[in-house]
Amino acid sequence: MCDFCVQYGEGTVWHQNPKNYARRMYSDRRKKADRPAGPPPEVASQVLHAQLFAARNDEPEKVPEIRAELVELIAKTHGGQVVTLDEAKEMVDLASPIALMGCVCRRVVRGKVEKRHEFTCMGLGVGMFKWDRWPERYKGGVEFVTPKEAKKWLDKWNKAGYVQTLMIFDAPYIGGICNCDYPTCLAIRYRMDYRLDSFMVKGHYVAKVDLEECNGCGRCFGRCQFGALTKEIFEEKAYVDAMKCFGCGVCQTSCNRDAIALIEKSTWPAMEGVW
């Protein structure tokens, strides 16, 4: 199991534990003495980001130290984890209310404010009761939906090739689910481009291809956001590099021959510690 499961799962996969959706609604009302000393984590993170990017050019010897500090901070505050489509659907039955909203990453990277029919992020849990207190985050509004509608919405984006990921705030609290792609998703980019692992932790599965069933049709080619899936050279069939795989299952859901299976990491000793 991943570190989140060990710390917050209480014997199960951590995002199956209903407690982890019950984020404090009024955390800003805590007594001042109860708040941690120093700048808020969001501010500290921004400072470390600036230091990391500057050090890459000016003082590369400091990069490992700054990266380690930033990875530790993000693991405690605002990170993410890849989940499968089925896991995401299980999650919408655990928490309410459910609300669809625009993606901040697409606004930052592409300058695009998503309209209601384009919403690619979903908020889960009691935090959505106060969504209107952050107008910049929820620019474009929100659309509250039922679990059935949320599952249909997840199917839509998975079919389009998007990866389902968790939004984690003030760990272990799960704020919602994103539908992500590279290079738009900042969390995926931080993980892939800068090796800031806690921004996007790998999922609990690894994709594996049954070469006898795979006919090399190519439906799955190009759907992997992590560079793990390629064409096998000699037989021209799909091949998954397990070490690069994040376990999202986007390749599996595109296969109409059931040639791709998702294997639990706990049953694959070589992959148990790869997160």
The main sheet orders its strands as 1-5-6-3-2-4
Could you report the average pLDDT, rounded to the nearest whole number? 88
N to C succession of SSEs: HHHEHEHEEHEEHEEEE
Q: How would you sum up the global shape?
A: globular
The value of Rg in angstroms is: 19 Å
The span between the termini is 9 Å
Briefly note the structural class of the backbone. Answer: alpha+beta
- H/I helix tally: 7
Task: Please count the beta strands (DSSP E, at least 2 residues each).
Answer: 10
Describe the sheet with the most strands: 6 strands, antiparallel
Q: Low-confidence stretches at least 5 residues in length (pLDDT < 50)?
A: 28-33
How many structural units, i.e. domains? 3
Helix content: 25-40%
Strand content: 15-25%
Can you describe this structure in just a few lines?
The protein is 27% helix and 17% strand.
Polypeptide structure, described:
- The protein is an alpha+beta fold and 275 residues long.
- The chain has helices spanning 3-8, 41-58, 63-76, 85-91, 104-110, 147-159, 186-194; strands at 78-82, 98-101, 121-124, 142-145, 163-169, 173-180, 205-209, 229-231, 238-240, 260-264.
- The chain has a 6-stranded antiparallel sheet.
- Helix 2 (41-58) packs antiparallel against helix 3 (63-76).
- The protein is globular.
- The model is unreliable at 28-33 (pLDDT under 50).
